[in-house]
Amino acid sequence: MPTPPPDQPAAPPSRRALVYLGVCVVLVGLNLRTVFSSFSAILPEITAAAGLPGWAVTALTTSPVTLLGVFAPFAPRLARRFGAENVLLGAMVLLSLGLVARGLPLPGAGAVPLLLAGTVACGAAIALGNVLLPSIVKRDFQHRLGLMSGLYTTAICASAALGAGLTYPAFQATGSWRASLAVWAVPAAAVVVLLVPVALRHHAAAGSAAADGEHSPWRSPVAWQVTLFMVFQAMMSFSVFAWLAPILRDRGIDGGTAGLIVAVSILLQMTGSLFAPVLAVRLRDQRVLNAAVALMAGGGFVLSIFGPLQLIWVWTGLLGLGQGSLTAVALTMIALRTRSASMAVRLSGMMQGVGYGLGSSGTFLVGQLLHWTGGFAAAGVMFAVVGALAAAFGWQAGRARLIRE
């Protein structure tokens, strides 16, 4: 019997199996950002209780995003070798273990070693999930591309909102920063259980060895425009997760209110991420949409730092709506600029590898600027520039062209 092509599952999925897979895709997305927002939500409490040095704070806020770039390029190879569903299951197992490790004590060694080890594991797992979800959507949900892209990117935003909004109350209820971080392993472990039957049904199809050289997005100008759009999107997106709560607290807002503001902002990200892909799929090209949401996100970030404090809900709301739409349309470009699922997973690995690898510099630079200047004003100027660059490359990436295969 001939081996099915790598663009297709081993057998056409039934409607029930497709619905189940769609639910699993959404639930995976619901676990891909809690590691970022949960840590930043109680960063002052962790720093005070664990005595974290400055270098550790920088490493713990920056390394997860850097690892997204490091591990993303491995996802296409792993998916061809073992199958996307099997790799996704392994990634969720690794994510669960990493989330547990962040909350475990290590007698005699302090908090930093397990925090770092758990964060590294989470970063690697999230990198694989980030790359595989768009390719699964491209492969199995071509007939509902806008809807499924909107649903899973909305779930990713919801993940960040849950981490930002519930971690501080969990800390208040338990009195333990370890418990309030480790609790996020519970929903991740639940998804592991749900993915097991999906992985058991899957038979990995071997990809073509020649595809590595013949169909490489690394040689495509279109792929590079999409990738650079992703770079500046990621610089803003992960800086929101890591630094928006500390920015608000630096402006005099208490921890509970800051967590609530961040959660509402990220809930508005969900609104943008739900509707932006549907709009993007229906448009002839996405130039105006990409540029508009990039400027909205950059402007909201700048106003959250410099704008009048009495309007902070407005500024963070603008940031949330713009950032959610920006993230969603950037990820939707993977499906819109490729003909096949095999190219989609390659472009996803490239744009997220480079995008998150370079995009992690955003969180790092905010930390360094805070250290050098003692405030967030310099970061505000930086994100005015980043928003403008995201708009410029978004305009280029939005032109209606496909990567040549």
A few lines on this structure:
This protein is mainly alpha-helical and 405 residues long.
Question: Mind explaining what this structure looks like?
Answer:
With 405 residues, the protein is an all-alpha fold. The protein has a single domain, classed as Growth Hormone, Chain: A (Up-down Bundle), CATH 1.20.1250. Helix content is 79%, strand content 0%. The chain has 18 helices and no strands. α6 runs antiparallel to α7 and α12 packs parallel to α14. The radius of gyration is 20 Å and the shape is globular. It is a multi-pass membrane protein. Keywords: Membrane, Transmembrane, Transmembrane helix.
What is the element layout, followed by pairings?
Blueprint: H1 15-29, H2 34-41, H3 43-50, H4 54-71, H5 74-82, H6 84-102, H7 112-140, H8 145-174, H9 177-182, H10 185-201, H11 211-214, H12 221-250, H13 255-282, H14 287-306, H15 312-336, H16 341-359, H17 361-373, H18 377-397
Helix pairs in contact: 1-7, 1-8, 1-10, 2-8, 2-12, 4-7, 4-16, 4-17, 5-6, 5-7, 6-7, 6-10, 7-8, 7-15, 7-16, 8-13, 8-15, 12-13, 12-14, 12-15, 12-16, 12-17, 12-18, 13-15, 14-15, 14-18
Low-pLDDT sequence parts: 1-7, 204-214
Stated plainly, the CATH topology is called Growth Hormone, Chain: A
Separate helix tally: 18
Question: Beta fraction of the residues?
Answer: under 5%
Gap between N and C termini, in Å?
27 Å
What's the CATH architecture? Up-down Bundle
Query: Structural class of the helices, strands and pairings?
Result: mainly alpha
Name the helix and strand elements from N-terminus to C-terminus, one letter apiece: HHHHHHHHHHHHHHHHHH
Shape: globular
Gyration radius from CA atoms, angstroms: 20 Å
Membrane topology: Multi-pass membrane protein
Subcellular location: Cell membrane
InterPro entries: MFS (IPR011701), MFS_Cyanate_Porter (IPR052524), MFS_dom (IPR020846), MFS_trans_sf (IPR036259)
Keywords: Membrane, Transmembrane, Transmembrane helix
